[in-house]
Structures are given as structure tokens and as C-alpha cells.
Amino acid sequence: MKTGIYPGSFDPITYGHIDIVKRALKVFDKLIILVSVNPNKKSLFTETERIDMIENVLSACKDQLQIETNQTLTVKRAKELGATHIVRGLRALTDFEYEFQMTHANRVLDKSIDSIFFMTDNKYSFLSSTTVKEIAEFKGDLETFVPSYVKQKIEEKYYK
Ligand code: ADP
Question: Can you give the three-state secondary structure of 62-78, one letter per residue?
């Protein structure tokens, strides 16, 4: 069984992340979504809230998914959980530079874990959780960026 691990903050999950999950599920039998928990990084949603949104919006593929949290090195957690590949999404050239560095650093840390990249659909190539939060702050319409469940959770944070 081929298992991939998809690390990220998912603060919150967007259609861009979902696009990558769907592409990865065509290649891997199982995908572990690894929600990073970094006490030094301020997040809008708690770890529990982020997991709840992921579970909700990806319920249709739940049999192939496992959701875990991470407070250590991704390669370490990947090995612990039996994943062979780190899945990452590429939006634009700007992602490449960072991913290039991370991939090589991860290889030095553990050469048995490799990275695999999927290019998102063109319509999500500008989309990030940060963009979504900025739009929400100014009460912009989030419908094309996140599923309605996530939209509702964002609105609860900002407007209630
Ligand atoms: P963000 O960069 O939005 O804060 P994360 O840290 O949760 O998101 O990102 C996790 C992974 O998902 C990274 O590989 C990132 O490049 C990818 N990703 C995020 N948004 C998109 C998108 N719109 N299209 C493709 N990949 C994406």
C-alpha cells in the first residue's frame, strides 16, 4: 500500500488544498493529512477546528484519508506513520524556491522519504489560506475559495 503525507497549516483548508488532495489520491492508496501545530505561529483556527473542517469537506474520500497533527519534523512524523512520500502543492514559481530548499533539507534528514509535487488547477493558483483570511477581514465573498462549511466557520470568527 502506497501512503503519502500532506503537511500544511490548513488554516483553513481551501479549494486549493482540496485540489491537491484529490490529485494525490489518484496516486496514493492512502493520504495522511498532517496538520502542523506550531505554538510560535499564530493561527486563526485551533487545531481541533482545522481538523473538523478538513473532515467535513473531505468526508467523501474519508476511507483513503487519515488526519494527524504534527509538532516535530515532517520526515520524522512521515516515518512514524508509515508514509513514503511527502505531498506538496505548487501554485506558482514563488512556491518552487521554498519547496526546493525544503525537499533537499528533508533528504538530508532522511533519504528514505521523498517529496512529490502536484500542480494545482489554474483557477486556484493564486489561492492561499492567507488570501482567504485577508478577503474575509474585508467582508469579501469567499464562495469561490472555500467550501460553504469553511465559509460559515470563517464568518463565525470574523463577524460574530
Ligand atoms: P498556505 O500556504 O495556504 O498557508 P499550507 O501551509 O496549509 O497553506 O500549505 C500546505 C501545502 O498546500 C503547501 O504545499 C502549499 O503549497 C499547498 N497549497 C496551499 N494552497 C494551495 C493552492 N491554492 N494550490 C495548490 N497548492 C496549495
Answer: HHHEEEEEECCCHHHHH
| Cell of residue 79, nine digits | 516515518
The matching CATH number, chosen from 3.40.50.620, 3.40.190.10, 3.50.50.60, 1.20.1250.20, for 3-158 is: 3.40.50.620
Give the pLDDT mean for 20-39.
96
Q: Per the omega criterion (within 30 degrees of 0), is the bond before 12 cis?
A: yes
Q: Which residues are catalytic?
A: 17, 41, 91, 129
**Nearest Cα residue to atom 6 of ligand 1:** 8
Residue of 38, 124, 128 to test ligand 1 pocket, by largest number of atoms within 8 Å of CB: 128
The pLDDT, as a whole number, for residue 138 is 92
CA 19 / ligand 1 centre spacing (Å):
10
d(CA 59, CA 34): 16
Return the closest-CA partner of residue 65 out of 51, 75, 79, 84: 51
Q: Are 35 and 8 in contact (CB under 8 A)?
A: yes
Residue 40 has pLDDT above 90, yes or no: no
